[in-house]
Design brief:
Blueprint lengths: L1 E6 L2 E3 L5 E9 L4 E9 L6 E7 L5 E2 L7 E6 L4 E6 L8 E9 L6 E2 L3 E5 L2
Length: 117
């Protein structure tokens, strides 16, 4: 049993910054990959950034150069540093993790990010 808990969301003005955190706990100690997805009203959930253990980090084109994903394996935590935020970044952001030996994954409950003046 795995639990992913996101934190760090909130309201920020355009051009501002936020850092999201996702801490994993439970029966699985390490993950093959972790990442962040987001979903805005009326749109499908999309991958924002991923950080596999054995591959390069990857980002959605819309956030390249503005967002940075990082991972602290000792804390089993993944972060998303979001800079130069735009109103179109507003969404619920979800943490996702994939265990070794599995193509499935686990989801956090989501944290709201709102970019507005």
């Amino acid at each position: 049993q795995v639990q992913l808990v996101e934190s760090g969301g909130g309201l920020v003005q355009p051009g501002g910054s936020l850092r999201l955190s996702c801490a994993a706990s439970g029966s699985i100690r390490s993950f093959r990959a972790m990442g962040w997805y987001r979903q805005a009203p009326g749109k499908e959930r999309e991958l924002v950034a991923g950080i596999p253990s054995d591959a390069d980090t990857n980002y959605a084109d819309s956030v390249k150069g503005r967002f940075t994903i990082s991972r602290d394996n000792t804390k089993n935590t993944v972060y998303l540093q979001m800079n130069s935020l735009k109103p179109e970044d507003s969404a619920v952001y979800y943490c996702h993790a994939v265990a070794w030996g599995s193509s499935g994954g686990y989801w956090g409950q989501g944290t709201q990010v709102t970019v507005s003046s």
